[in-house]
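Give me the fold.
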Amino acid sequence: MRLDDDEAELRGSRGGRRRDSLFGEPISRVFVPRAVPAPALHRAAAWLLFALALVTTLFAIAVARTLYVPIGGMLVVAAWLSGLGIFAQTGATWWRRAVRVQLTSRHVLWRRGRLRRSIDLRTISFARIHWNPKVPGVGDLELVRAVPTGALRRTLNIRLHDLEAPDAVWAEIRGVQVTGVLGDARRPVGQRLDRGERVLWTEQPSRGRWIWDSTRAATLGIALFSAAATVRAIVGGAHALRVVMAAGLSPRSMPFGALAIAMSVSVAVVLFTALLAGYYSLLRPARLRRSTRYVVTDRRVLIQRGAEELHLDRDRIVDVIDAPQNDGSHDLFIVVGGQNAHAHALAGAFGERAQPGVAGDLLPVLRALQDSDTVRAILTPAREAA
């Protein structure tokens, strides 16, 4: 039986005979993404597009039965929206099905057909893990490289989607032994350490301070605007239905039912948007804060926030910046370094007004600490030794 290219590459990599065509390095492992349901954002976009397609179709029915005008253009728009919804639902799964992740002696390579992305193992500053809430033991592994601050600041990272046991994959990338506790997202990060690794300090952020950034403020603005639009849609829709009834359209007719359903679906979509944006701006940050845990070991700094984790080796730490806050707590900004990169702009540590990372990507920042002196004393020797 003839093997396809991926299976041949996988078998060749296990035997050490296969070499990467880009760098000519022997491939030690090939990781294949798991087939998982579409991400939540894609599913939400798909349902929104399906709702718009339904509303367009219902309005087309009402127009055709009352005004007797051609509705071909409206039906084409509805079909186009349905197609976009199907693509939003299945596109990510289809795209990732052909992705392969190769690990060589010096690089991590993402490959899909002729497309290539790579990152040098020596330049990886830290990793983020995003566990899949629907599929146990599966998640995304994001490899981040520290870059200079100021005018040269930019983002250099590569995200490996839908990997089985992404923390075990990260252990292989780091060149440490994979233990049996890896791959279980139900365990706290402090219980999934390397063999022989010891916890030196752990703490949760205090809950007395709310941090607002531009993204969170914009999300709250969307929630308020959507709430106002919901009220306006309810009032306007009721008025429109009364007008068509006064014009002689029977409430039991098909056009009236189509209009009523279309308006109800439109109101539901806008109301759902308001509720979702309100949750992300007001409730979710508090839940994330309660689920955040900071762990410092003799080898790494680990941050766990719900289904997200950040793994930072201590030998990558260049400096620790202590930022006292008005409520008596302290924010510790960990400046990381790597090959040809000396720092990473971290959420206000270098004077930025915006403070990302509250509900966005995890960053090497220990926020709202009561015992900052202890962790600084632990991390400072590692910095001086480097």
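Residues 254-290 form the longest helix (37 residues).
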